[in-house]
Amino acid sequence: MEQKRKSLLEKYNIPLSHLDFGYVKNCGNAREMEKIVNILRSGEEGFYPDLTRCAEDKLKELKPNSQLFRYEEPIQRSEFLDRKELKPIYDWTHDIKSKDSTLNEMKEDIRTLKANLPPMRTPSKIDTDKSATDADTAKPMPNPSVPTAKATKSSENRIKSTDYNKWDKYDPDVEILRMDLDEERAKEEAEQKNAKNVAPPKKAVDKTDENERLKERLMSRLEQLSKLERDHLAEKHRLRGNEYFKSKEYKSAILEYSQAIIYDPENASRSYNNRAISHLKVKNYLAAISDCEACLEIEPDNIKALLRLADANYGQGRRRESHDVYQRVLQLDPSNACALKSLEELHKQLGEIAPANATRLVIEELPPEVKPKPKANPKASPKVVEPKATKPTKDYDLAELVKPNRMVKNKILNASDALVGKESIKQKQGPIQELTDADSSPSMLRMPLANKRIDNNKILIEEL
Amino acid sequence: MDKPQMIEHLHESVSYTVYDTKWIPLSAKFVVLGSKANSQGVLDIFELNEDKLVKIKSIDKKVAFKCGTFGAASLRNRHMAIGDFEGRLQVLDLEHPDLAVYNVKAHKGIINCIDAIGGTQVDCGAPEIVTGSRDGAVKVWDIRQGQAPVVDISPPPQMGDGINKCGTRDCWAVAFGNTFNSEERVVAAGYDNGDLKLFDLRSLAVRWETTLKNGICGLEFDRRDIPMNKLGVTTLEGGLLVYDLRTQHATKGFSYVEERNAGRSVGTNGVISGPKATVWTVRHLPQNRDLFLTGGGTGSIRLWQYEYPDKRVIDDTDGSKL
Q: Which InterPro entries does the entry mention (chain A) (predicted)?
């Protein structure tokens, strides 16, 4: 006993005076604290419950995940949970049982599946000890299936050196050609295999092609699988995608989600949704938008999908759409913090949009010409052309008053183009239009659509 | 509550030694393999009913079972591959257990460990079974092949001084991994002397090897159907290592974290400070590859979380049954 106590104190090389409230409170060294706790817990210096607790608290502060805080706990019985918490387990049991029985029924038609199992490995050996020589012996057959096939073929075709008749018929050119063809075919096969299998690295080169092929292959497989198996596989791929996503391998995640979607297109909303966020992460906004839309088609009120759609639109530079989508989110969930925050941000960038009583006043106080103009637009659509087309040059000062004039020019010209399509104007404005294409397209849409036209036009100008 | 808690759902006592248990894929049933006192093999199938466990089938065989797996079974047939004490590998249809689907005398000694792959995965190569045995060999089987293994990884024949048998290794753990396409495949094998070897089945070579201080009891890749990510290794004397297989140093090999007290039992007042015990097994959570369980020799189950840059241990254990 004596020796042991000595050893602990000595082992840690801590003077006895350190086992003291004052010292413990001021100690900043986690390792030293651990040692002190160890000594106190061992009881070799006597039991000081308060001091021990104090030291433990201090250690928790310094190093919250110290090994010393690992306790072994007795296992809880299921009575510990109440009925409600057990319900998911019971539900799962029922669910899985029905799956099980359907699987059992399908047992008979295994044959079809067996047909397209991957080929068998050719028997081989690995010597454990001579790893150096091992590498040499292994090299001749790095890809077991291809070389052996070749070997058997060549042995069949081989002509004995004494068989002169055959040698007479032997045409080296034809043989060489044949060998070349064989080689090419083998290469092609290998390439196909590679393309199928080594998807991620190849993807960059011919992504669409790769996806097509993947799809085709899966489709051919799909026909043989039952709904149950498909669901299972889809779920598996989706979860794998989630895992990839978590570890930030977005490209692999996208691939997994795509497979999940192919397997189970009816219930693919979650996969679409997750693929959308993966696309967002790799800044592929257009793909993200289309995925969100696909998800929303299945589940129109999916808030997450809406938020992602808004995000993607924003990333793509379509702020107006983004704004509309956020509005829709707020319709569904008025207190959605994310939407509120983003809307605020958008307002800052675009100017006030939504209820905007204040801004309306502001506009009314601005030069009176502003109002009549937008009013005029909707009233007489055929006539609009002239005032609009001429407006930028005429009312240059007015536009300046409102906001930077460059954009105003564009919008109105675009609108006029949309309405009439005067070729001469178009040609003139061609380059400008191209430059601000992203902005112009929504405005074109909006002009004819606007219900509350006056407001809308006001907003337009204001926003610019 | 910030800590996860483990709750025992059901409890059933059996009258034999349990060596292995496996869930039957897509069902609420699991298989228990074991050995009776008279060293007969026993295979029980239990089914989970709401709040009780029902034994639906019990099969007795002459030779005790050691290990089994469903890894090579497709969802439709769900055949179980079983290794027994006499080195026989059989694949059983659990509906008709009397006649094995495949039966081969695989090893000279007991089959310690088994793993299989390729059953349900799509585009992940052929379904294969790997066994590790007391005779030191690791063999990969394809049941279409017949009576010979497709890959045979045997130790060199004994350097016959005949007096002591230290020449032979004893393989205690095997695991498949890295099968993310139809060609890549890796087998990890752990031996009684602490050797850990990684065999590449595509190039048929030893990919990497190292030697740990203690014999290796359990091995598992965190996911076997993705490019190698992590490998959990458990050893005698309470060792737990997690290798990060994405960061390989030219000479030092893969980086790893080690936890020497993983098997340590409870000492005074619930603090883990008792003697070191074997960690028998490591199993990763199917839902989250960074969480895994270890089963220790003191009957404890411990739940760990791996954190990528540096590791931290969340939790803890239970003192439970066997």
A: CiliaryAsmbly_MitoImport (IPR051982), TPR-like_helical_dom_sf (IPR011990), TPR_rpt (IPR019734)
